[in-house]
Amino acid sequence: MNATIPTTSHYPAAPAAEVSSSHTLSVLVDNEPGVLARVIGLFSGRGYNIDSLTVSETEHQKHISRITIVTSGTPMVIEQIKNQLERLVPVHRVIDLTVAGPYLERELAMVKVRGKGEHRVEALRLADAFRARVIDATTESFVFEITGKSDKIDQFIELMLPLGLVEVSRTGVVAISRGPEAM
């Protein structure tokens, strides 16, 4: 006679490994000296990485700036980041655009490519396909201006590598929620 013995454990199951994902945070702050350093200090002091960072004054009369931060982490880490940002004194509001609803994000890059002959022609053809504009040209090089999502810019840069890519300068991500409501 064979009896089946149930296999139960007295130990709780280990939590499943949470998946890290990229999040775009929009942070409204007072435009005053030291605010950006405090925000950056929060990230570096806790070992969080910043993938992209842009900041600019958005409401001149109210002295308000918007900081757009792209960072990665598990849902728990992202929640910690948001909570810690909200506790900083000059911070008015923190919105995780990734989960708040539909939003738009763009980045600008200037891409310098050196080449002659067929490489030049191919660089111009690809630039046209990606809707990149020529903003500087010499007999041996081009500087292209391209805007769009970061992955589009990454693809353009990757295609320019074998054609003589010399230098890249990128702005970082800017983002805004869609629809008529303000953040």
From TrEMBL:
Q: Provide the GO biological process annotations.
A: isoleucine biosynthetic process; L-valine biosynthetic process
Q: Which UniProt keywords apply?
A: Amino-acid biosynthesis, Branched-chain amino acid biosynthesis, Transferase
Recorded hits in CDD domains, A to Z, give: ACT_AHAS
Q: Which GO terms describe its cellular component?
A: cytosol
* Pathway in which the depicted protein is active: Amino-acid biosynthesis; L-isoleucine biosynthesis; L-isoleucine from 2-oxobutanoate: step 1/4; Amino-acid biosynthesis; L-valine biosynthesis; L-valine from pyruvate: step 1/4
Its EC number is: 2.2.1.6
Show the catalytic activity: 2 pyruvate + H(+) = (2S)-2-acetolactate + CO2
Any one GO molecular function term:
acetolactate synthase activity
Give the multimer and partner information.
Answer: Dimer of large and small chains.
**Belongs to which family?**
Belongs to the acetolactate synthase small subunit family.
This protein is called what?
Acetolactate synthase small subunit
Q: Which organism is it from?
A: Pseudorhodoplanes sinuspersici
